[in-house]
Amino acid sequence: MRPAGHPLVPAPKVGVLLINLGTPDAAEPKAVRRYLAEFLSDPRVVEIPQLIWQPILRGAVLTTRPKKSAHAYAQVWREDGSPLAAITRAQASALHGAFGEDVIVDYAMRYGRPAIGDRLAALKEAGCERVLLAPLYPQYCAATTATANDKAFARLATMRWQPAIRTLPPYHDHPAYIDALASSVESAIAALDFVPDALLASFHGMPQRTLELGDPYNCHCQKTARLLDQALDREVTITFQSRFGRAKWLEPATDTVLAALPAQGVKRVAIVAPGFSADCVETLEELAIRGRETFEAAGGTHFAYLPCLNDTPLGIEMLRSIIAGELEGWVSLP
Questions:
Q1: pLDDT band at residue 10 using 50, 70 and 90 as cut-offs
Q2: Measured in Å, how far apart are the chain's first and last C-alpha atoms?
Q3: Of 10 and 177, which is predicted with more confidence?
Q4: CB under 8 Å, gap of 24 or more: what pairs does 44-53 form?
Q5: How far apart are CA 79 and CA 34, in angstroms?
Q6: Domain 13-171+314-326 class?
Q7: Rounded CA gap, 107 and 34, in Å?
Q8: Residue 149 · residue 131 · CB < 8 Å
Q9: CA atoms within 13 A of residue 13's CA, in its CB half-sphere
Q10: Average pLDDT score, the chain
């Protein structure tokens, strides 16, 4: 029984916060500029001293890049908004009730909205005394997983009554992830009207320096590609996309490989993006549109982009399985 005058305290619950990268609010330059200003100001993303980087960012980058990026977003924008935000929202909705009635599943974006801090506070307000932070990056990188956790812990630092916290580890080699990925690729290839000469696995690129500093991202990508190769029993060629700036990035570059393949006799190609948990501008515009243009301009005849796991039954069951494992001891599941 609650003592007289005691504030109302919700019944204890457990929260799961799905976290993805983020997106502008609209496919127009002003919104993209706001988003890029936040994204590229993150010292986890651009590891250049801010006194040097900020004048460059506020000058050349934010005066030229927003218009180009807005055009890219406009080509893939949906009626319900950004593909990344819409799919992540659908993933959270599909997992509603998957872990019992006392587990709340929500979602947030590291950059843009809904903000991590806001949703974390909302989960606590709803009675979540334990929260699993779930950055949806299969391969760990400081510029993705770590910065998402950083943002959550920064909000926790302002709370008088903090919930207990767990963080979802990278799942680049988790059997549920590899099995779902392989099944998805097999189904997508079987539905094509051609047989690919090559299958590319394109991961988001990172500066070579991140590997030299000890970031495990490259190793995680290599292992995912190797396990996918084994699961499919066919060769998978790993590439890295989305280079930015003048620094040396992980290689081989996706666009360079696509441009070179036709001259090597590879005229039919399929490409998958195993590092993305949801389709977004980097997959739908950079790979599916510009990747096709690059390949066909070089003499390729058949090109297919294979979708991410997204909120498909395969994708949702994979997330349910992996998250359930991380909730052990907090909730009782069948």
A1: confident
A2: 31
A3: 177
A4: 44/142, 44/143, 44/146, 44/147, 44/150, 45/143, 45/147, 47/207, 47/209, 47/210
A5: 21
A6: alpha beta
A7: 21
A8: no
A9: 22
A10: 95
243 vs 245: which has the higher pLDDT:
243
| Tens-place pLDDT, residues 90-117 | 999 999 999 999 999 999 999 999 999 9
Q: Which amino acid is at 47?
A: E
Q: What is the mean pLDDT of residues 248-254?
A: 96
Chosen CATH of 175-306 out of 1.10.10.10, 3.40.50.1400, 3.30.310.50, 3.40.190.290: 3.40.50.1400
Q: What is the pTM of this model?
A: 0.94
- The C-alpha atoms of residue 133 and residue 14 are separated, in whole angstroms, by 11
- Outline where DSSP puts E strands in the chain: 13-22, 103-111, 128-135, 164-167, 198-204, 236-241, 268-272, 302-306
Both tokens assigned to 140: 């760990």
Task: Supply the Cα-derived Rg of the chain in whole angstroms.
Answer: 21
Buried-state track 272-293, b at ≥16 Cβ within 10 A, e below 16:
bbbbbbbbbbbbbbbbbbbbbe
CB atoms within 10 A of CB 191: 9
Here the tokens at position 247 are: 């620094």
Q: Look at the block and give the residue holding tokens 């890219």.
A: 72
Q: Where in the chain is the domain with CATH 3.40.50.1400?
A: 13-171+314-326, 175-306
What distance in Å separates the CA atoms of residue 147 and residue 47, rounded to the nearest whole number?
Answer: 12
